[in-house]
Amino acid sequence: MVILVVATTADPASIGPASAFLYMPGWSPGPSLQEGIESFSNGEVRLLKHEKSIVREDDLDLRWETAIGEPVSEVIFLSRHTAVSSRPALTVHPIGVPHLKDDETPPQGGRPGWAAQPNPRIGPWLRLLKQIATDQGLVPEFEITLEATHHGPVTNTPTMFLEIGSTEEYWGRQDAAQAIALLLWQGLGLGGGTPVGTWNRGNEKILLGIGGGHYAPRHMDIVLKDGVWVGHLLSGYSLPMEEPAKGNSKSNSNSQEINGMWKHAIRVSYEATKSAFPGGEVMAHLDHKSFKGWQKNAITNFLTEHNIKIGKPDDFV
């Protein structure tokens, strides 16, 4: 089994960390997946470089296995991050667009209604990234944060994105690129240390974040604590809910009465997280303050109906 790290030459926040990573010892040229996609090998790690948008090359894990004969255990994408605030940031997040209907076109890749398996390293690597960024003097200038589940490309193995944001001024910052490269180097154990975030456990709890904003602050407060595992993070925009019809009680909303893709989004995100953490117990953590009463009641009822436990912050530590 090999680990794919994927970068694109079309993005300075992607090729910058990839170049810094390749500068570290142990690399050798690898086979080309196809014209325009070259690779480099270091132990069980394969770094792929292509020329397209980072969210447009679907099924790289399956294509690699078919062409090269090496099964892929996980995929890590390097990318830029954009934000209205323009605040410098280093971010980590799972991917998918589980809230989109079949007839909707994902604006940034992926497949409507789909959620990738979240990479189990997301929580441990967020904490490691914060430590590295602090040691490198990037904090407090750069915010170290999770992002909610969003965009593509389509993958078939546990996946996460590592991003540098949030404007062109920061995408090309060499110190930020070096921090991401160190995260990869240390996190994957290429320097001879123990890899960080490898899931080989059972009976541990995994946080499935439901509700809140794009940067998942209430979920992140928990994930920053040592030993916490995290799967998908569904922000409010990934839980589209139609208000109950007039005459129905909003205060006691039955989940079947509330239309929208929110139920599908929760279901597929739960199943994808469960698949990524075999033997673990996936528990929902709700950002209660982000919901209206009828929304919270509907979500709580839906989780109960589907035997998905709801955890309090202390349950995940």
From TrEMBL:
<dbReference type="GO" id="GO:0019478">
    <property type="term" value="P:D-amino acid catabolic process"/>
</dbReference>
<keyword id="KW-0378">Hydrolase</keyword>
<dbReference type="InterPro" id="IPR007508">
    <property type="entry name" value="DtdA"/>
</dbReference>
<keyword id="KW-0479">Metal-binding</keyword>
<protein>
    <submittedName>
        <fullName>D-aminoacyl-tRNA deacylase</fullName>
    </submittedName>
</protein>
<dbReference type="GO" id="GO:0051499">
    <property type="term" value="F:D-aminoacyl-tRNA deacylase activity"/>
</dbReference>
<dbReference type="InterPro" id="IPR018033">
    <property type="entry name" value="Deacylase_DtdA_archaea"/>
</dbReference>
<dbReference type="GO" id="GO:0046872">
    <property type="term" value="F:metal ion binding"/>
</dbReference>
<feature type="region of interest" description="Disordered">
    <location>
        <begin position="97"/>
        <end position="117"/>
    </location>
</feature>
<dbReference type="Pfam" id="PF04414">
    <property type="entry name" value="tRNA_deacylase"/>
</dbReference>
<keyword id="KW-0862">Zinc</keyword>
